[in-house]
């Protein structure tokens, strides 16, 4: 059982134990807290894991994946941001670390359980979790079918996150039941802006921020890596609130538009590379439900794969703020078919 010190993985371990599994806990150390530029409460989380395991009377161990994480997730994330794109480190972590390095460390006749809100079926297909607000199949959309066949998701059929917290309380796991839920990347910390963290690793100059409609300079950006399409530009000029429409690396220019609903922030299609089909089902043209962000509602789209294996997703209605580098994930009903990295977008207007 991959345990993080949070309520989801703690309750997952208890549920497996109740179902008669022989459970052993593994805590993954992915970040070196000796790095002054990173902040990660790993020591406190490790203590919580040990406390839960002692309460459940199951063995636990800490495994060091710091080097793996740096080379396979963190460095790739930095390079992608430096190139002006918008990566998703959590997708990379699940693919390369949790269901890569970690899965390879455990015996081949064992299962790997995690606290993700998603499901698999008898054929090893990845399905959405019953708790739609917490469904995390998006983050597992690049995990290969072979790995999913060895995966167990005890919370997949849970329909309410509050039920998980109540289970934790009922089991006597009072500390993790009341523990604040963590969001974002652990080493950045929850009280620090991500752009400020990236500044410590990416050396890019400031540059002009311009109005897309007039070409006039309206302010200055602090480095293009710190912005993504559709977000507030943090530029104070005139009566408008400005939003990022484009990033021009050649001229080091941030291109902005007034208002969060400006037509230039909407796209009707995108193409994707590095595509992963999780299962053997690999259609060339199919109507799907698609997401370009974890918190986006799934929307109807047409996925079309041409003879050169270029994947094009055309949305039934325009989608706001699609950024190159993001993961576009597709489903057939609840079945996650796979995903790819967005490499180009088509404006809606």
Automatic annotation (TrEMBL):
- Pfam families per the record? tRNA_Me_trans, tRNA_Me_trans_C, tRNA_Me_trans_M
Sorted alphabetically, the Gene Ontology BP terms of this entry are: mitochondrial tRNA wobble position uridine thiolation
Keyword flag Cell division: no
Boundaries of every tRNA-specific 2-thiouridylase MnmA-like C-terminal domain copy: 268-342
What sequence ranges are listed for the domain tRNA-specific 2-thiouridylase MnmA-like central?
196-256
Record key words, sorted: ATP-binding, Disulfide bond, Nucleotide-binding, RNA-binding, Transferase, tRNA processing, tRNA-binding
Q: Which InterPro entries match?
A: MnmA-like, MnmA-like_C, MnmA-like_central, MnmA-like_central_sf, Rossmann-like_a/b/a_fold
* Catalyses which reaction(s): 5-taurinomethyluridine(34) in tRNA + S-sulfanyl-L-cysteinyl-[protein] + AH2 + ATP = 5-taurinomethyl-2-thiouridine(34) in tRNA + L-cysteinyl-[protein] + A + AMP + diphosphate + H(+)
Q: Name one GO molecular function term.
A: tRNA binding
GO cellular component terms attached to this protein's record: mitochondrion
Q: Which SUPFAM superfamilies is this protein grouped with?
A: Adenine nucleotide alpha hydrolases-like
Described function? Catalyzes the 2-thiolation of uridine at the wobble position (U34) of mitochondrial tRNA(Lys), tRNA(Glu) and tRNA(Gln). Required for the formation of 5-taurinomethyl-2-thiouridine (tm5s2U) of mitochondrial tRNA(Lys), tRNA(Glu), and tRNA(Gln) at the wobble position. ATP is required to activate the C2 atom of the wobble base.
- Family, similarity comment: Belongs to the MnmA/TRMU family.
Which NCBIfam families does the entry link to? PRK00143.1 (NF001138), trmU (TIGR00420)
What is the recorded name of this protein? tRNA-5-taurinomethyluridine 2-sulfurtransferase
List the source organism. Hesseltinella vesiculosa
């Amino acid at each position: 059982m991959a345990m993080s010190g949070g309520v989801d993985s703690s309750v997952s371990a208890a549920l497996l134990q109740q179902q008669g599994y022989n459970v052993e806990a593994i805590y993954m150390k992915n970040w070196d807290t000796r790095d002054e530029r990173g902040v990660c409460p790993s020591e406190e989380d490790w203590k919580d894991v040990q406390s839960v395991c002692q309460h459940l009377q199951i063995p636990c161990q800490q495994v060091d994946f710091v080097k793996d994480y740096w080379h396979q997730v963190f460095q790739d994330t930095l390079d992608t941001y430096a190139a002006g794109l918008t990566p998703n480190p959590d997708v990379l972590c699940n693919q390369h670390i949790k269901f890569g390095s970690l899965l390879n460390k455990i015996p081949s006749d064992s299962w790997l359980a995690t606290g993700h809100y998603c499901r698999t079926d008898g054929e090893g297909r990845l399905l959405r979790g019953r708790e739609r607000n917490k469904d995390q199949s998006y983050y597992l959309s690049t995990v290969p079918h072979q790995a999913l066949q060895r995966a167990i998701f005890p919370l997949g059929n849970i329909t309410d996150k509050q039920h998980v917290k109540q289970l934790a309380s009922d089991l006597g796991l009072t500390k993790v039941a009341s523990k604040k839920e963590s969001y974002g990347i652990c080493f950045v910390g929850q009280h620090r802006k991500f752009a400020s963290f990236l500044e410590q690793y990416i050396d890019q100059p400031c540059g002009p921020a311009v109005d897309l409609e007039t070409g006039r300079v309206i302010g200055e950006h602090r480095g293009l890596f710190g912005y993504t399409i559709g977000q507030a530009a943090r530029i104070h000029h005139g009566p408008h609130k400005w939003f990022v429409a484009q990033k021009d690396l050649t001229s080091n220019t941030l291109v902005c538009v007034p208002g969060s609903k400006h037509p230039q922030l909407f796209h009707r299609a995108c193409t994707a590379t590095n595509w992963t089909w999780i299962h053997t089902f690999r259609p060339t043209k199919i109507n799907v439900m698609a997401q370009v962000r974890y918190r986006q509602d799934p929307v109807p789209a047409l996925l079309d794969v041409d003879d050169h294996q270029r994947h094009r997703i055309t949305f039934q209605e325009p989608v706001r703020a699609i950024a190159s580098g993001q993961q576009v994930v597709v489903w057939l009903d609840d079945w996650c078919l796979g995903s790819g990295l967005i490499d180009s977008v088509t404006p809606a207007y």
